[in-house]
Design a protein that fits this description.
Blueprint lengths: L3 H21 L9 H8 L17 E6 L11 H9 L2 E6 L10 E5 L7 H12 L3 E5 L10 H8 L3 E3 L2 E4 L8 E5 L18 E3 L5 E3 L8 E8 L4 E5 L10 E4 L2 E8 L5 E6 L7 H4 L2 H21 L2
Parallel strand pairs: 1-2, 1-3, 3-4, 4-14
Antiparallel strand pairs: 5-9, 6-11, 7-8, 7-10, 10-13, 11-12, 13-14
Length: 302
């Protein structure tokens, strides 16, 4: 998949160069009849020689089922949309991630990784893996020790909070678009004007001191400055309240030293559930997820 376009380009160049060299050796007085030349150079293929055009390699998405993630039976519309877009949907445990897994989706785990799973996930990423992490706010006292260690390697960490804007009467929060990473494309033209709403949100903090020239990290979606991040879940002894800050709800990170291993983390996921999927208020957030998956594919193609 990575070299398909280059190979096609080289083949076309070879054909063009060959044709030019043959034409240069002909004198104007010796040019054969055009029809006969076409028949000699391009004889009609037999049925056995006609081959169907080959399509691009399919992209294998593996939905991780470890640690009580959201049951995929609640995500049938999301799955159907991905399959319409040409992805192949698979499911597996973290301990069983196959070599042909192009993208992993880890959606709302109720428990932390084990130390062994942490190492397995690191090994997958070291080979240029891609991960979409969906981690909404949760009142559970679960502490994501190993999962946080993993995200810190990509220069951001998980907050144990629930983000709201008290001035708004709705649970849905309108988010601001901050940045799109290099090679990410809009899912469709309407994405530029479709507002992005989310609910039941968790925030992430960027670790700027960890970043290097090879680590590309930024915020994709953020709240306005009126947001409040109240302590919610986890078991921290002295949880912080973030008030009147712009809180990071969707972030990305790409590590060039790990074969462009990439992570997109989103602090909400309700917009993907079947019960909310068809709502107009879910469309904007969904398109940011689709564009993130496309970003993974675009970087894997180089």
């Amino acid at each position: 998949m990575k070299f398909h376009k280059k190979l096609l380009f080289l083949m076309l160049c070879a054909v063009v160069c060959t044709g030019c060299s043959q034409a240069d050796t002909q004198s104007s007085a010796e040019l054969p009849d055009l029809d006969s030349m076409i028949q000699q150079e391009n004889p009609a293929p037999s049925d056995a020689e006609i081959q169907p055009e080959t399509s691009a390699e399919p992209v294998n998405i593996f939905y991780l089922t470890s640690h009580g993630t959201e049951d995929s039976s609640h995500l049938t519309k999301f799955r159907a949309q991905l399959e319409t877009d040409g992805y192949l949907w698979n499911e597996c445990e973290i301990s069983e991630i196959p070599a042909d897994a192009d993208i992993l989706i880890y959606n709302t785990p109720a428990e932390d990784l084990t130390s062994e799973e942490f190492q397995l996930l690191r090994e997958y990423m070291n080979q240029g893996g891609d991960l979409l992490l969906l981690l909404p706010a949760s009142e559970s006292e679960t502490r994501y020790k190993f999962l946080n260690n993993f995200t810190e390697e990509f220069c951001f960490r998980i907050d144990y909070d629930r983000v709201t804007i008290p001035e708004q009467n709705s649970e849905l929060t309108l988010l601001q678009i901050i940045a799109m990473p290099d090679r990410m494309e809009y899912y469709d033209d309407s994405m530029q004007t479709t507002p992005v709403y989310m609910q039941n949100m968790r925030s992430f903090h960027m670790l700027g001191d960890y970043a290097t020239d090879e680590m590309f990290v930024d915020v994709m979606l953020q709240t306005t400055a009126q947001a409040v991040g109240e302590p919610f879940g986890g078991t921290e002894d002295d949880p912080l309240t973030y008030e009147n800050e712009k809180l990071n709800i969707m972030v990305y990170s790409r590590d060039a030293l790990r074969n462009n291993a990439s992570v997109v983390a989103c602090g909400a996921s309700d917009f993907l559930l079947d019960e909310n999927f068809d709502s107009d208020m879910s469309k904007g957030a969904q398109k940011w997820v689709y564009s993130s998956l496309g970003w993974f594919v675009n970087y894997s193609a180089y």
